[in-house]
């Protein structure tokens, strides 16, 4: 194939000691150069031996299952404590932060979740910061139950893709602020279904590597959501400079061609 | 010589008559084996029949458990699910026979690529729901170790069906069927009904004249790249061990069995033993011995079924019931309109039958119109009729979206619908008389969006004997004989 052979990985490989945990995921989706030799040997073996291929497929399946396990739905907590606590529990478990109405931001501290969480049965959740969490399409169920959510931050979430964005219409009544910066799987096709969010006032779509034309997308999204302030690419990004401007701007920041 | 001497020596003279018969039996079998080996050696030696210069690797294999006629998305989907649902890995040998490896006329790749759950039959809705789940998790289903993940380029923008006064009640009934309360599981289609005022507010570029009701799919609907799905399936299916053959099916060799039903009626059951696959651009053919044949040949399924003898009999009997699938030509036009609908535009289906959707970011749109029976173009070739756009498609589009009055057609192409003239729904499952033949065809324009689920259903019927996950009994072949139409009201 002509496309770069980015291998199918969900988390950074175990033997690649540097990137551990979820934070290194965004990098792992891009084609990487360093564990080249190890990868080539494994590929060679997998092409020739069924056992090696089976082991690799098994390891891949395990990674998939790990993400699914993180995104399971907490039905017991939902029934006992209500949807707000269930959603907050889900986010805190994943490593994000939650803000209930009239309360401070709650973050997961090292020793486990604070006991106050269980008392907040009737208090709606106002803001969620799920940056870097491994939320996927299934896990979004827990978030969509938070009907009074006003601010949602999904920055650098490696599994949030266009399909997830198509579900956000359920929060259309309350959502005012949304941040999708740095998500590697979101493209302009997913951004097209944000038009349901008519109450949105602030949208951050900067640094989306999968969007093919950031400047044009910015303009189209601004047209689609007239009441919303869209932060993201500069509309001139992606335009080629004219010859006289090029010589003038050699010292300034590089513009991608 | 040594053999003969040994046999004489060990004959009745040495070991007594009691063992004579046993020994004679085994010497005969041994004789047969020896002569076989002798024949083989003679053929390999110079002057024999076997020639090492004669290479048969371009021909399909001589034996295969399942032969799937047609390598489009439906055929590959059946192959994938067969290999996935087989009890033991490598238990079933599958051969996919495809006439054109460039897929230049295949309906799959020429399709607009939409997927929706807004159907009227619950089976269609269930098929689409599963297929959309398959597409969403395509990198788990079709993962091949060390190959890059698939990017289907799915646009989750939804379908917007507009209905006039007459169609409004039908649309309401359909939406009731589509919503989650109708299904035992929590899922269903997420569809919202909109009045003309709401429609005008949401999509200001629509002219709501003549529209009484609109149904808008909010989730799991949109369009994607069918070529990517096809290549993903091909790659995965090859990694699972399915054999591909570039050739055309020219003949079926079958045997008949005359039987009587319990009421004394005479029935002729047939079983296909061999499929003759002719190699491209050559007269060479290979008789492939097979146990099961699956017809997934799209627009040409009718011809393949005739080859198999389906429909050869007195009209009005089960033997005389043809497979009513024929190719119908449909045009797709791509135009540019600078003031057209923006990023939020769904796939809009007008009550007149015209439809369009956004393509890319540059104000380009794709669309078409299904002609009435009298205006059907000749399906002999895939030439595009541009006057059709001027006369039939453009007026409806311009009426519905005033911005489309100034547009410029950039490109156009034509593709085939595997049109089921009976009720425009798919034919799935076994044939009642030809015992080992299965169908997966006739979807009349919504085959691509249901292909993953239909593949699974056909694989289940072949392996388990009945539908397990989605019951597609209304789509069996026998409905053509019994006259039970499974009519779909929401056809574009």
From TrEMBL, chain A:
Pfam families referenced in this protein's UniProt entry, alphabetically: DUF7885 (PF25372)
SUPFAM superfamilies: RNI-like
Gene3D superfamilies: Ribonuclease Inhibitor
F-box/LRR-repeat protein 15-like leucin rich repeat domain residues: 125-219
Residue stretches in coiled coil: none
Subunit structure: Interacts with incompletely assembled mitochondrial NADH:ubiquinone oxidoreductase complex (complex I).
Known role: Required for the assembly of the mitochondrial NADH:ubiquinone oxidoreductase complex (complex I). Involved in the assembly of the distal region of complex I.
Entry's family note: Belongs to the ATP synthase subunit s family.
Protein name: Distal membrane-arm assembly complex protein 2
Native organism: Physeter macrocephalus
Organism phylogeny: Eukaryota, Metazoa, Chordata, Craniata, Vertebrata
Underlying gene: DMAC2
From TrEMBL, chain B:
Top-level lineage group: Eukaryota
GO molecular function per UniProt: oxidoreductase activity
Residue ranges occupied by any FAD dependent oxidoreductase domain in the UniProt entry: 65-460
Gene name in the database record: FOXRED1
Primary role: Required for the assembly of the mitochondrial membrane respiratory chain NADH dehydrogenase (Complex I). Involved in mid-late stages of complex I assembly.
Subunit text: Associates with components of the mitochondrial respiratory chain complex I.
Name by which UniProt lists this protein: FAD-dependent oxidoreductase domain-containing protein 1
Presence of the UniProt keyword Transport in the record: yes
Compartments in which it is found: Mitochondrion inner membrane
UniProt cofactor(s): FAD
Keyword RNA-binding recorded: no
Keywords assigned: Electron transport, FAD, Flavoprotein, Membrane, Mitochondrion, Mitochondrion inner membrane, Oxidoreductase, Respiratory chain, Transmembrane, Transmembrane helix, Transport
Entry GO terms, CC: mitochondrial inner membrane
Membrane topology: Single-pass membrane protein
Listed SUPFAM superfamilies: FAD/NAD(P)-binding domain (SSF51905)
One of the protein's GO biological processes: mitochondrial respiratory chain complex I assembly
Database matches in Pfam families: DAO
């Amino acid at each position: 194939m002509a496309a770069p052979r980015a291998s199918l990985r969900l988390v950074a490989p175990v033997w690649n000691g540097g990137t551990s945990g979820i934070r290194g995921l965004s990098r792992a989706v891009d084609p990487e150069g360093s564990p080249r030799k190890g990868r080539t040997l494994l590929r060679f073996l997998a092409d020739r031996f069924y056992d090696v291929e089976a082991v690799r497929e098994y390891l891949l399946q395990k990674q998939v299952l790990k993400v699914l396990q993180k995104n399971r739905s907490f039905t017991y907590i939902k029934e006992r404590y209500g949807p707000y606590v269930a959603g907050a529990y889900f986010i805190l478990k994943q490593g994000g932060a939650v803000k209930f109405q009239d309360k401070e931001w709650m973050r997961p501290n090292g020793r486990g979740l604070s006991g106050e969480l269980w008392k907040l049965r009737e208090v709606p959740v106002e803001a969620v910061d799920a940056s870097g969490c491994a939320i996927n399409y299934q896990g979004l169920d827990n978030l969509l139950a938070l009907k009074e959510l006003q601010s949602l931050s999904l920055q650098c979430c490696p599994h949030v893709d266009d399909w997830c964005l198509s579900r956000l219409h359920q929060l259309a009544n309350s959502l005012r602020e949304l941040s999708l910066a740095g998500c590697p799987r979101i493209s302009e096709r997913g951004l097209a279904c944000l038009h349901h969010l008519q109450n949105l006032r602030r949208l951050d779509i900067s640094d989306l590597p999968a969007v093919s034309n950031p400047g044009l997308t910015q303009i189209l999204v601004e047209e689609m959501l007239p009441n919303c302030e869209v932060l993201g690419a500069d509309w001139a990004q992606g335009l080629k400079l004219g010859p006289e401007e090029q010589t003038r701007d050699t010292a300034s920041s590089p513009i991608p061609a | 010589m040594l053999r003969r001497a040994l046999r004489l020596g060990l004959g009745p003279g040495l070991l007594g008559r009691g063992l004579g018969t046993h020994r004679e039996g085994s010497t005969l079998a041994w004789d047969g084996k020896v002569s076989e080996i002798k024949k083989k050696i003679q053929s390999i030696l110079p002057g024999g029949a076997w020639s090492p210069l004669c290479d048969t690797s371009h021909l399909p294999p001589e034996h295969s458990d399942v032969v799937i006629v047609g390598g489009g998305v439906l055929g590959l989907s059946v192959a994938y699910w067969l290999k996935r649902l087989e009890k033991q890995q490598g238990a079933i040998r599958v051969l996919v026979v495809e006439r054109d490896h460039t897929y230049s006329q295949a309906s799959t790749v020429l399709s607009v690529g939409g997927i929706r759950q807004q159907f009227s039959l619950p089976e269609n809705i269930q098929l689409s729901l599963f297929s959309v789940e398959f597409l969403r998790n395509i990198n788990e289903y079709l993962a091949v170790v060390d190959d890059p993940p698939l990017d289907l380029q799915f646009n989750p923008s939804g379908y917007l069906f507009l209905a006039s006064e007459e169609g409004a009640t039908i649309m309401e009934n359909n939406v009731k069927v589509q919503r989650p309360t109708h299904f035992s599981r929590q899922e269903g289609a997420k569809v919202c009904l909109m009045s003309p005022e709401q429609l005008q507010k949401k999509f200001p570029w629509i002219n709501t004249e003549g529209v009484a009701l609109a149904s808008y799919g909010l989730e799991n609907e949109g369009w994607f790249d069918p070529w990517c799905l096809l290549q993903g399936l091909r790659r995965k299916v090859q990694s699972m061990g399915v054999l591909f053959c570039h050739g055309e099916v020219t003949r079926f060799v079958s045997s008949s069995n005359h039987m009587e039903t319990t009421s004394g009626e005479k029935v002729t059951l047939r079983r296909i033993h061999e499929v003759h696959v002719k190699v491209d651009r050559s007269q060479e053919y290979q008789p492939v011995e097979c146990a099961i044949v699956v017809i997934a040949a799209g627009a040409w399924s009718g011809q393949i079924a005739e080859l198999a003898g389906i429909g050869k009999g007195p009209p009005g009997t089960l033997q005389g019931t043809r497979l009513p699938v024929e190719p119908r030509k449909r045009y797709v036009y791509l135009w540019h309109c600078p003031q057209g609908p923006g990023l939020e535009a769904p796939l809009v289906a007008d009550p007149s039958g015209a439809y369009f959707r956004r393509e890319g970011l540059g104000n380009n749109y794709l669309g078409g119109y299904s002609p009435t029976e009298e205006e059907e173009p000749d399906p002999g070739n895939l030439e595009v009729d541009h006057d059709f756009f001027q006369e039939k498609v453009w007026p409806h589009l311009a009426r519905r979206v005033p911005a489309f009055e100034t547009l410029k057609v950039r490109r156009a192409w034509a593709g085939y619908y595997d049109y089921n003239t009976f009720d425009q729904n798919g034919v799935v499952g076994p044939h009642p008389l030809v015992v080992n033949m299965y169908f997966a065809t006739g979807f009349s324009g919504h085959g691509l969006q249901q292909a993953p689920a239909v593949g699974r259903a056909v694989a289940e019927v072949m392996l388990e004997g009945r539908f397990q996950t989605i019951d597609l009994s209304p789509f069996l072949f026998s409905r053509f004989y019994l006259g039970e139409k499974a009519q779909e009201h929401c056809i574009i």
